[in-house]
Structures are given as C-alpha cells and as structure tokens.
Amino acid sequence: MPDLPLATVRDLKAVEIGTGRPFASILLLRKVGTKTASNGNAFLSLELGDRTGTFNTNLFGDHPQFEATKALPEGSAVRVEGKLDYFNGRLSPKLAKLTPLTEAELALPGAVENLVELAPENAESMWTEFNATIDAIPHDELRMTTRGVFEEIGETFRVCPAAIAMHHAYRHGLLEHTLRMARAAKALLPLYPEVDPSLVLAGILLHDTGKTIEYEGALATRRSRKGILQGHVVLGYQLVRKHGLKARLDADRLERLEHIVLSHQGEPEWGAAVYAATPEAVFVSMVDNLDAKMGMVQRTLRQATDTDEFSERLPGLSSQLLVRKIGE
Amino acid sequence: MPDLPLATVRDLKAVEIGTGRPFASILLLRKVGTKTASNGNAFLSLELGDRTGTFNTNLFGDHPQFEATKALPEGSAVRVEGKLDYFNGRLSPKLAKLTPLTEAELALPGAVENLVELAPENAESMWTEFNATIDAIPHDELRMTTRGVFEEIGETFRVCPAAIAMHHAYRHGLLEHTLRMARAAKALLPLYPEVDPSLVLAGILLHDTGKTIEYEGALATRRSRKGILQGHVVLGYQLVRKHGLKARLDADRLERLEHIVLSHQGEPEWGAAVYAATPEAVFVSMVDNLDAKMGMVQRTLRQATDTDEFSERLPGLSSQLLVRKIGE
Amino acid sequence: MPDLPLATVRDLKAVEIGTGRPFASILLLRKVGTKTASNGNAFLSLELGDRTGTFNTNLFGDHPQFEATKALPEGSAVRVEGKLDYFNGRLSPKLAKLTPLTEAELALPGAVENLVELAPENAESMWTEFNATIDAIPHDELRMTTRGVFEEIGETFRVCPAAIAMHHAYRHGLLEHTLRMARAAKALLPLYPEVDPSLVLAGILLHDTGKTIEYEGALATRRSRKGILQGHVVLGYQLVRKHGLKARLDADRLERLEHIVLSHQGEPEWGAAVYAATPEAVFVSMVDNLDAKMGMVQRTLRQATDTDEFSERLPGLSSQLLVRKIGE
Amino acid sequence: MPDLPLATVRDLKAVEIGTGRPFASILLLRKVGTKTASNGNAFLSLELGDRTGTFNTNLFGDHPQFEATKALPEGSAVRVEGKLDYFNGRLSPKLAKLTPLTEAELALPGAVENLVELAPENAESMWTEFNATIDAIPHDELRMTTRGVFEEIGETFRVCPAAIAMHHAYRHGLLEHTLRMARAAKALLPLYPEVDPSLVLAGILLHDTGKTIEYEGALATRRSRKGILQGHVVLGYQLVRKHGLKARLDADRLERLEHIVLSHQGEPEWGAAVYAATPEAVFVSMVDNLDAKMGMVQRTLRQATDTDEFSERLPGLSSQLLVRKIGE
Amino acid sequence: MPDLPLATVRDLKAVEIGTGRPFASILLLRKVGTKTASNGNAFLSLELGDRTGTFNTNLFGDHPQFEATKALPEGSAVRVEGKLDYFNGRLSPKLAKLTPLTEAELALPGAVENLVELAPENAESMWTEFNATIDAIPHDELRMTTRGVFEEIGETFRVCPAAIAMHHAYRHGLLEHTLRMARAAKALLPLYPEVDPSLVLAGILLHDTGKTIEYEGALATRRSRKGILQGHVVLGYQLVRKHGLKARLDADRLERLEHIVLSHQGEPEWGAAVYAATPEAVFVSMVDNLDAKMGMVQRTLRQATDTDEFSERLPGLSSQLLVRKIGE
Amino acid sequence: MPDLPLATVRDLKAVEIGTGRPFASILLLRKVGTKTASNGNAFLSLELGDRTGTFNTNLFGDHPQFEATKALPEGSAVRVEGKLDYFNGRLSPKLAKLTPLTEAELALPGAVENLVELAPENAESMWTEFNATIDAIPHDELRMTTRGVFEEIGETFRVCPAAIAMHHAYRHGLLEHTLRMARAAKALLPLYPEVDPSLVLAGILLHDTGKTIEYEGALATRRSRKGILQGHVVLGYQLVRKHGLKARLDADRLERLEHIVLSHQGEPEWGAAVYAATPEAVFVSMVDNLDAKMGMVQRTLRQATDTDEFSERLPGLSSQLLVRKIGE
C-alpha cells in the first residue's frame, strides 16, 4: 500500500465501482466527534477533506488508532490509507491507518497546496515586499506603530485568509489583498495630494489586522470566540491603539489611524463602526473595495477553463463573469 | 430695565407689534461667528435661544460688549437685555447688554430649566439610587469595574442626554434611561435565571457610557470629534476595557461585558459592532429597546395638553400616540 | 417482536448495516399520499417521523393494512413495526404493522414527548397559573372579556405552539410564551405607571389567541386555510371583539384592547395591521419582543451539550449564541 | 364691502402692496385654537384656506364675533370679510366679519369647488352608475352583502376622498376610484375566466369602504381615532363581515370576500394584513394598483398648463410625468 | 427493445427495484461535458431530462456512439434506450443507444410536449391573433415599426418563454403573455382615453422583444452572452429603435415608444432603465404587472389536482394560492 | 451707477438696512414666467441668482425692458442694476436695467466664475490632456470609436457638470471627473494585468458621455426630456454603439465596451442596466466610485475655512467630513 499514488477527494469520488479498492491520501481532519452506537459502543465520526472535496466516515472503538485519532485537534493534516466503501450511497471509506503529518512533512513543496487553496503570488516574496512597504512609511511614529503591530501578529497574518467566503478567501489571502491595496495606493497617491501618504499606507497595512484574531485554524478557518463577540473591526482597532500608544504616536494621527480601521468596511451594515469621515479613511475604504472586487475577478479567471464562456454566478458581483479572453 | 420680568423666546415671538419694546431674558448662546459687513466692518452673528425657541441677531463692532461677547464659548448661558426689532420679517432684537451667568446663578432653582429640557425625576435622588445600584452588583470585580468607570466620567454622565434627538433627549436623560433600565432588569431577573445578574447590571450601567464622550456641550449638545470618528459604542467599549483590566476582572467576564457594550444597539445598521451573541447581551439590548420606546411614550404624555387626543407623529414609533386618558 | 425497545428515527438512521434488522417505533404520520406505480398498482407514499427525524417509505396495495393506513388522518400517532431497508441510499424500512395510538396511549407519560418537542415547564401548572392571571385582572369587563375568549378556545390554546418555526415553536409554546409575558409585565408594571394594568394584562393574554385558529394539527402543525387567508392578527382581533362586546366592555377600552392585538407584531412588514399608538400597545409589543428573543436563547441553551461553545447560527438572533457557562 | 368679488387665497397672496385693502372670501376654517397673549388676554389663532392656499391670523378677545368663532367646528366653511395685513412678512389679514355658510349656501354651484378639489366626473351620475353596478352583481348574497354595506355608509362613501395624499385625494375620489376599478374589472373579466365575477365585483366595490371610517371631516380630511388605531383594512373587513353574516352569505364566499379586503393593499408594508392568496384577491389588488397609478396620471394631466412639458416629480410614480400631448 | 413504451424521467425514478430493467425515453440533452477518469480514459458526463425530471449518467470512450454524442449540441432532443442502473444511490442508467430526433420527429404531436412545458392556448391561433393585432394598430408608422421588428424576430418570438423562472416560463409563454396584455389593453383603452391606443398597442407588442435575444436554446432556455452583458430591456430598445428609424416614425413617438420599452419593468431594481414617465408607459407597465401575476395564478390552477386545497408557496405572489374552487 | 462695484447675491442679502440702496450685479436669469396681477395687468416673475444665492422679483408691464426681458431664454447671464427692496420680508429689489451679457463679456476672466462654480483645474489644459489620452489608446478601432464620439459631443462635454447634485456638480466637472478616472486607471493598470488597457481607457472616457444629452442648459443645469425618458446610461450606450459601428470595431470589443457603459453605475437601483460582468467593467465601475467619492472630499476641502473642524453632513458620504489639516 505504501506505493499507492496520493489521491484527492475528487479522485475518490469519481471512481465508479470502487468498493474495496485501496487508496492513500493527504487530508485535513475537519471535524471529529465522539458518538455512541445503538449497541452502546463509542465510535468517532470524522469529516475529512482537501481542496477538492469532503467526506464523512466513522472509526470504531476497536480500531488500533481510535484513541490517537480521538486526540487529534480539528484542522490537523493526516496521511490516510484505507479502502473505498459507501454508506447510504455516499463515499464513506474504511480507514486502515491515519498518520498525522509532521511540521517537516507539511513544509514539503506541494503538501499544503493540495489541502487548501493558496494565494497565487509567492508568499515569501510578498512578505519581503510587505516589510519593505512598512519600512518606507515616511512618518516615524506611524511606521513604528505599524511595525509594532506586525511584530505581534506577523506570523499569523502571513498565512491568514482575507475572508472565510468571498474575496481572497485562501491561505496568504490577507497578505496578498493588503499588499495589493498598498501597491494600488502607492500608484494613486500622486493623484490625490489631499490624503496623507503615511496615514494611508499605515491605515492600509493595518486595516484588517483584526482578522488574525477573528479567524482561527491554520488550515481550516472558522470564526473564533473573540471574532464572534467583537468582530475584526474592533479587534483591529484595539491592536492599532495599543501599538500607537506604545510608539507615542501623536493623538491627532492616532485618532485618524483608528478611524481608518473603524470605518474601512464602508457601511455600518457591512460592519463599519462609523462612516468614513476623513480624506484618508474615504480613500482607504475605496481602495479596499476596488481590490476586493478585482480579487474576485482574478480568482475566477484563474479557475476558469479554456472552454468556459461565463463563470457561475458570483455572489460578490451579483453576476456571472465573462471569462473568455478578448478575441477568442 | 432691571425690573423687567424674564421673557422666554416664545414670549418674544408672540408679541405682535413689538418693535422697540424692551425685554430681558436668560438665554443660551448657541452659535457665535465673526463676519465682515459690506462696508468692511466686523460684526458678530449670534444665535440665541432657550427651551422655547431660537432667534438670530447681530452685534456690531462698536458695541461696548463686542470683544467680551466674541470671547464667550458657544453654549454659554447669558442674561440678555435689549429692545425688540425685526429683520426681513424675523425677530432680530437689538441687544443692549449681555452678561454671562455665573455658576452660582446657573445653579439657582429654575435657571437651567428654562434653558434646556430636564429629566422629570429629581437628578439628585436618581444619582443616589444609581450609586446604590452599583454598590449592589454582587460580583466584586464587575462592581469594581463599574465603579471605576463612573469615578472617571460620573459628572459628565449625570447631566448627559441619552440622545441628541429621539428618546430621553434632555439633560440627565442618560442617567434617567440607564437607571430605568436597571430597575426594569432588577424586576425581570427572577424570570430569566439563565442570565447572570452581575453581568446584566454592570452591562446596563455601562452600555451607553461612551455617550459622555460622543456628545459635548453641557447645555447645547452636539457630537464631538471623537464621537464622529469613533462612535459611542467603541468609546464605551474602550472605557469598559480600561477599567475592567484595572479591576482585574477575569478574561471571560470582561469579554462578555465588552460584548454587551459592542452589541447593545441591536442591529449593525443602528450602530452595533456585532449582533448580541450571549444571553446577557440579548437581554440588555431588549431592555434597552423597551425603555427607549417607553421613554418616548412618557415624554409625549408629559407634553400633551388636556385637549389633545393624539400627539404629532413620533418618528421613533412611526405613529401618532393616543394621549387621551382611558375613559376621558 | 413485541419485546423490541422503541427506537427513535435518529436511532434508525444511525445503525450502519441495518438491512433486515427488526425495529419498533412510535411515530407521527406526517403525510400520506396515494400513488400509482408504473405497473398500474396503487401504493401509499408515507412520511413518518418523530422529534429526531423523518423518513419516507411506501406501503403497497397488497399489504393487509393498506386500507386502514390510507384512512388515517395526517398527524396521527402510530406504533410501527418492521425491518430496516434502504432505497436509493436513504432509510426506507419495510413496514410490517401500523397501529394508531389510542387517546389513552397518547396520554401515557413520555408518549407525546418523543413525537414532538414540549415546553420545558409543566403544562398543568402553567395552565393553573394562567387562569389565576386571568382572575387577577382588576377591571371587571376586561377580565370577563379575557375569560370569555379562553372559554371558547382554551383547549386549543393550551397545546398550541407559539410559532411554526422561530421562537417557542413547540407544544404548549404559546401558553408558555404568553404566561412568561404576563409574568414580565407584572414585574414591570410598577415601573411604568402610565400604562393601565388591566389593559396590559388582558392585552398580553389575548394578543396571540388568533394563532389557535391560524395553526392546525395537534401534533404536526401547519397554517390553516383561515390562517393563510386572514392571519392570526385579524383572527385574534375578531375573537377579542366578539367577547368584548359580549362582556359589554366600554367602547374606549375595547378599541384600545383591539388595538393591542392589531399592533403587537411591531412593524407592518412583520404582520402588524397598524403601528402601536397607545402606551399599552407600545408596552405589550416590547414585552412580546423581549420574551420572544429570550425564548430563543432559553431553548438554545437547553439543547446545548456540555462541550458546545457556540450554537449554530440562530436566524432570529442573526448570530450564533455563546452557550458555554461563565467561568467554564 | 358686500359688492367685493370673492377672492381666493392665491389672489390675496399675489397682491403686492395690499396693507389695508378690503377683501371678501369663502374659506375653510382649518384650525382654531385659543391662546393667551403676553398681556394675559385670550385670543383665537385661526388657520383659514381654500383650494389655492392657506394663511394664519388672530382674532382678539374684544372682537364682536370672538365667541361665535371660538364655537365653530374645525372644517367649517365661512364667508370672511376684512382688510389685508401682514405680520412678520406673511399674509395675516385683519378680519372684520366671519359668517358660517349654511348648508344651502354650500350646496350652491361652485361653493364647494373653490374650497376643495373635486373629482372631475359628475358625482350624481357616478353614484347612479355605482348603484347600478351593485344591482348587477349576479350572486344574490354577494349583491345583498354589498347593498347592505352601502346602506350603512353610502352618504359618507359618496364624498370621501380615496386618500389624504397620493391618488384620487379629493372629494368624491373614493367613489370615482372604486367605480373606475369596477369598470376596468368588467372590461377584463372575459379575459380571466378563472376569477369569479360576483366575487370580484363585490370585492372591488367593498375593498376600500373602511376609509369612510378611517378618514373624517367632510371638507378638511384627517385620519380619525379609529383610523389610526385600526386602519381602513381592518375597518373594512369588519363592515364586510357584519353585512355578509346579515345577508347569510355562505362561509366559503364570505371568507374569500373578507380576504380580498384584507389583502388588497398588496404588500404588508403597504398595509395588507396578508398577501393575496386567491385568484380574485390577486386580480383585485392588481386592478387597484393600475387605477391608482392611472388616477395620478389623470390628475396630473388635468392640472398641467399648455406650456408645461413635464410635471413636478410625482412621489407615487417616482418620476416627473411628460404632460405634453403627442405631436405638440 | 423497440416495442418498449416511452417512459418519462418520473417513471424511471419511481420504479423501485429497477437495476437492469430496459427502458426507452425521449429526452433533452441538457448538458454534455468531457472528463478524464482516474485511469486516464476520457468519458462524457451527460445530464438528460424532460418535463418531469433530470438525471446524470456517463458514457465511456469505448461506447460506439461516444463521438456522435460528444458532438451533439446541448439542448438537443434524443431518443434514448438503455437499462436502469444506480450510482451512489441515484438513478444513473447505462445507455445503449442515443438517437437525435429529426425536425420531423420533433414536430410530431406530443413530442415537444413531453420534453418541455407548453403554453395552454394553441400556438398557431395565438400567432394568427397576434398578427391581426399588429395589423390593427391605427397609426401607420407605429404599425410599420412593429411589423418590422416581428419580421426580424418572429420565429424566435413565437416559441420563446416569457421568463426562465417566474411567470409564463414555458414554450410560447412570451407570445401568450404579450397577446394577453394586448387583449387586456384593448379592453381597458376606452376607460383611459388619455393614453394613445397606437402607442400602447405597439408598446405592448414590442416591450419584451429583447427576450428573444436575452434567452437562447429552443428547448432548454438559458441567458445568452448578450443577455448577460446587456439585458432584454436595452436589447429590446435597440430593436425598436432600429425599426422605428427604418419606418420613419416621427421623433416624438419614437422616443415615447422607446421609453415604454426602457421603463416597462417598473422599478430600476427590477431592471427598468428609467421610471415610467409618460401616460402610456405607466399604463403598459401596470398591464404587464397585472397579466404577469394572473399568469402565475393561471398556471398554478392548471397544475393543481382535485384534492389540493392550497398550492406550494409561489415566490412571485409571496404566498400559497387557494386552488380549490368556490363551493367545493 | 456704472461705477458701482459688482455685488454678489450674498452681498445683497447681507446688507441690513438696504431699502433704496443702489447696486449692480452679474446674474443668471434662472426662471422667467408671465403672470397676471389682480388688476389684470401682466408682469414677469423673475428668479435671478449667482453662485452665492438666489432671489425673486417682479418686472411690471410698464417697465421699458419688459418685452426684451420676457424674450430672454432661461439660463441667460445678465447685468442687472437697481435698488434694494423687500417684499414679505425677503429681498426683492426693484430692477432699473437688465442687459444680457454678450459672448465676449461672458468669456472675460471671472465672468462665469461668479455665476457658477467651476472645476478647480484649468479647463484648457484638462482638455488638452484629455485629447492626448484619447490619442494614446493603443487599440486602433477603440481609439477611433472614442475619437468619433468626442468629435460629435466634444464642446458640450467640455463644460458639462458630472452631476446635478452630488459629486463634481459644477462646470467642467464631467471633464475633470473623467480625466481623473483616466489618470487613476493609468496608474493602476500595471497592477491589474487581466484587464485590457485599451478597453479600460476607452470605457472610462466614454462611460458618462450620455450626460451631455441627459443634462441641458450651459449655466443652469437641468435634466432634458431625453434625460428623463431614457437616462444617461442608455444615451451613452447609443452614442458608443453608433461610433463603434462607424469605426468598424470588432463585435467582441464593441459588446464589451457597450457593457462598460451599461454597467458602470454599479447597481441597478443606482441606474445600471446590468451588473458589471467583465473584468474591465468591474474595474471601471470601481474606479468611477473611487473618484466620485474623492471628488466630494476634494470639493468639501476646497470650500472649508480655516476655522472649520468638520463640514456639514455630506449625503454622498453619509457623514460629516473632518476638514482640519493633520496637526493643526
């Protein structure tokens, strides 16, 4: 069985008469629950999946890895071996072996890519450019404030998605979206001299940092307790305030920077605490909106095949998108 | 002229052929602006008013009190003497004398009552009961957190209105509305044992404290810079967080207390940062809603005359209110 | 087979390799339809279920109980025996025997509880307290009006749910919600002296009585023809009007009582005929809203398990609810 | 002064230097209130107007007609004589004489027309056609039900406007709108054979009869107490139910007829108690909508002058209307 | 196998133990896609269906009709023979033979009726009446404009549905809805003399002609590229403009006719380019609304069985519909 | 009198006791209507104004310039001389002389600036840059299409405001807004390689060209008949289509270019005919939104005085704007 090529969930579901056929896969343990069968025996109900799909299966109390699997945290990556089986007409393989991946194995090229969607740009070079953008903020205390926040949350920020659904909803998506907003702002700043460049750049880099607390789970993202009870707008405001005070940022700029975080969602019904009421806050919320919408366009174009003319309807655009290239 | 009875703005406007008639009034200096007449001379444009109305008039550069008046802060209470006059058909008296009221004069019975609307209950006894309510919070750190906030903002809180327009929009209105919510909660707590009394009481007493920063101007209320840029929800959250940390409130309760403040407005489009997601937060937002609506009812009934059957349409109720007593 | 323990639908669905396994259950006959198979023979398509789930199966024309089952009204409770089977991957047991439960059997402790969700408080003691609340209405004709309505609809009211989905959507839910509103009102009345206690109490007890006509089916609730064509607001108004006239309630109070019924839903888009326009109507609609929301909280807490941190998203609260106890 | 031609309010306001100029007018006493001047004397504050405008003036305690005027009900038609005067730049004539019009004078041709807007069709002939439409309802009990309602409310119905603002908002407007709907229905019935003609005709004739109770004031219309507390939908339902029971209309048709009244407003937020759920109710609400919109078009075209190209923006159409004829 | 009676998809799904049972059906090839199995072989994934339902199945590379089937356009009608089979619990028959229907076969009575829903009126006689309606437009250039449009799009218009979902969503539905609107308009025109008959009739006949371009696929309807990128309102406007200019229609009428097309959807959020702002445009949009709603009623009544009391909830009416006849 | 300095309307209104005081002004004749006084004589009712305000006055039949003034088109610029006077408390000067300005006088520096607000950038240099932007569109037929449209409408486009109210609502505002969008697009294009530069640039330059037809009146802007009946989205689409066909633009690009115009308003309720469904259309609508919002910010900052902290509430931002510079 060690020689089996790794199969994705899509592969497993596509096979037509698969009962009993052996397979091996690298999968994410999305959910694990302990239940009691009608005969009184405990069993584990598992949800396993990767980028291409998800299935449910059970692991009974007499399985040699019952206790080890029960102890795995949700969101673990595991190597799974077993045989295809079906229950009530749905894929529900019998599992022979579950081995959690080591950090080293997860770091191997391609390992994470099959489990979760990744940002298309290289994460390392984005992170380098991101840090250079911080270093280039002209105003000293605004730069120090920004630096301070990312010293606290940098590692989480690097891998965090920009959303659970909707735009840039994949690993490194928050880094990608934030960096693209900074690039757009740098391109636009000469045209809007009434906005302060330091405030705009710090505001963009920091506006969504509350999402590093709102979301949790490195591979399988969900809203955390703090995320549900406070929301990323207030959490980001709190982060910015803490590091602004630490960097002795003057009260006027601190208030304007906090305001960018509090208002960047645009409308209260989309989560903004207040409407944008400074030139920089209006500017940042518009650039956010532009890159969020264009991020949906880019992801849809990446996923389109050569024969597609339109995508499925995209809720964020309220429309299908024409994905065929001009002149084709 | 010192013997003149004090006239309200409604009195001044009711008099039919008043040109030249002397008068004296205690008024609020709502706005003061420096303008330049077409002859190049500077003059002050003043807006003066009391509970019953408002008028505009000018004070020219050669008036003996020109400089003193120019220096008065907006929102000052002044004793005014002059003669009735009209410009473009509107009341615009010629002012002979403007004397700012001393603190002692403002404290005299009836002085403030004529300038601004007051809560109907006695402010002193409400304040005493309010402090007793704090002292009765069972949980030590929640009580200390609440006490800490009111040591910082107590004086402002006592006089603050609960709103600029809408419900409890008058001096001491915030104290009155908060106290009435606490009374309602105390009456209801035995019926809803799943909510924690300490958390509910602290949450109610603190939920609107951000309004002491959102609003400014003791007699003439307007939104402050902080109020526009952050909103009372975030400002109150910040106050609560600071004093919760100081009182070493445990992280679980602090998060739940902050959540009550962040969610009490009910819906994001009404200003809530997040939807209520704990039993106590749902309870507080419902009690807030109940007393806010009943506060509109009570104020409307107070203002009704014996011959009224219905009030004007109340925007907060989307209806006129039947103000005639049962059986009359 | 008589010795088989009774299995719930959740039990039947959990069993993994169940084909042919015998079972017995007490179930609700939710739907029964006559169809014709492609061979021209008639068969019954049955939907059966209990509190824990639902399944579909067929009963063919040659089954000894074909005619008896065809004649059963939808919503009947039946004892079912048979063997597990599956069709197209879904549970579809072969039924050997269907026996309708007698009234006596349904009245046995536990019988109804497994079929439908019940209010958590004891129905008998709630009903006693409810009647005492009627008797305690101070105003004679208001009390007689209220008494009159419940003499007409009392039995139906006792078991009616407060909603089909949403809050208090279970057997006795309407009695429970109405009683809890009355308790809340009694606790709050001393704080709001401008509302008339008799009118508020009668208004609360009567506000939702139209639902006894809007809904039908003792065990499986659906909207009746009258419910679809008129709605519970108008139906309740009609009930109240009839008994108010009978009790010779004075025209002023009758109009105010009818208005409470017509306006209690709050907003026309939620079903109110008019906006609340009397002090008592505003008060009742606010107490209704408070207890409806708290009812969702209470039911969610009851259904939570010890390991749950948050509930699923509750549509009525637009949020998940934190169900973990403070300090756990 | 008896020889003075009658002037409209528009005439009185157009005159440029009119102080002291004598005039005579037939006006509506819209509001009358007793006030106390700052000298302690009582005076009456009057609002007087006609189709063309409105003004305010005072009548002092020493005026010979002070007591008689104070006793006039609001909405009375009066003959007024006096001299033009202005207060605070607004027309505020000195009144010499106020004489209430007798019923006979009001009935004179042209008298009412100058005070309030009238339906363009002749009221008498509309009323004749309306009664013939009742008599032509084929189904006996539906015809008797309809006849019964109009025996009770006929006189009020004849003069009632169809709305306070919006469509057909003028004397006889309700009669006109209802009759036009009946004509439209008669024209359309052959095309929609699935709707029952008797039910449709009775439903149309009766759908808005609650407005005869919702509105009050023959010449100056406002919502009555019953109108505010119950709304015309419920009031009309009550009327129809009473006369349907009296005419022994069968339960099925009565329920369908009541449903037409309860649902004709279309959407709950526009006042419908329920959504239309029978073929006849859908049909009646659509015909209502069509004639209401066309009524706004017709009134706007009547009021347009030859040189107008577009009307003002009409709120009911969310647009200006092109009033120029084709080819002009 | 040629003797097999034709089975509908509903028949195929109803059969309980069907594996291996032969069948023959006339079906619509809704979707066809080429996929690669995990063994590297290509196969076709097919979606087939008729009026009564839909199923998916695969056709492998070694099937004799693999290439012929791959080349069939989506929306083709095919005669299918094969044996029942199931995959993952869902119907997934093994296909032995697929034969595209010839035009002649499709034209046979009953062929299309089983594949797609049809308008209830006879298409030929509707088309004759439709053309007579064009010929009866009094104004020459308006008649020529209308005639011109239907010379271009007539064949497509005849079979086009009036919608993909919602009202008149079936073959010939657009013809039926347009013709019924014309009949209703002719019946109503004498009652609304302020609208121009020629403009109204031309406007009605032309208002939805853009749908012949917005939708594509004779048997399986979907929005075309032009439909997604421009919408039927603009496409219809373009058609009308082209033929209006060709017919030398005067500029005033052309603008009013174009305006009817641009505004007939009523509200911008329903797709209108502008609000109706001429008498004729208001009239046409109201008649459109009336017949669209009545079309939903008629279709629901047609589909109801004798024992139904209410239909399912109809999204277009926001309600269930009472389908039981009066007095039954 | 020729020596009088020119006074603005704000100057005229500020003067306190001005009756009889001579003045001279350059004003816009906003409205002129012929009325009949109660003495039967005709007079002109004039509305005159400039950037700073507006007043009404009358010109009687015996005035030497009565006929000449009656013949002036609305929107004419006139030199006015007269004496201050008041009617009903409002400025209503007696006019001695009205002289229409010649084209040459209007072209003098400062003439138009006092009458209407101007874009802050120099119109000539904006126009030069605009034409260079057209010339730099890489794709030949897209450039020719764009060139063709501006050859037809260039002069009107140059002076047209971008809106009647809201953003860039001043002379040359449409040129300014369009040019700024093009600059922003050029800065952003390298960051969004999936959008086609030629299509984006042509789309931006053309997206609002329908406004040159939707608005009319060089100095006093209002919606034209075509604007009300068709809207600028459809009018611009028509312009683009005409010149695209003329320039033999390929069908694919023409459809995409038309789609940009049809979708640029973002949401149907804001006037879009369809939702943006191509990468370029999403991009253009986002850049449009960004520059529209920033245009409101820029105009508000220009109008702020040194002592202002916040602007008035801006409807387009749903907020007041902080206009104080950072650190002041």
TrEMBL record, chains A, B, C, D, E, F:
Methyltransferase among keywords: no
Source taxon at top rank: Bacteria
SMART domains listed in its UniProt record: HDc (SM00471)
UniProt-listed InterPro entries: HD/PDEase_dom, HD_domain, HDIG_dom, YhaM_exoribonuc/phosphodiest
GO molecular function: hydrolase activity
GO BP field: rRNA 3'-end processing
Domain HD: 174-293
Pfam family, one: HD
Keyword Hydrolase among UniProt keywords: yes
PROSITE patterns: HD
Annotated keywords: Hydrolase
Gene3D superfamilies in alphabetical order: Hypothetical protein af1432
Stored PANTHER family: 3'-5' EXORIBONUCLEASE YHAM
Protein name as annotated: Phosphohydrolase
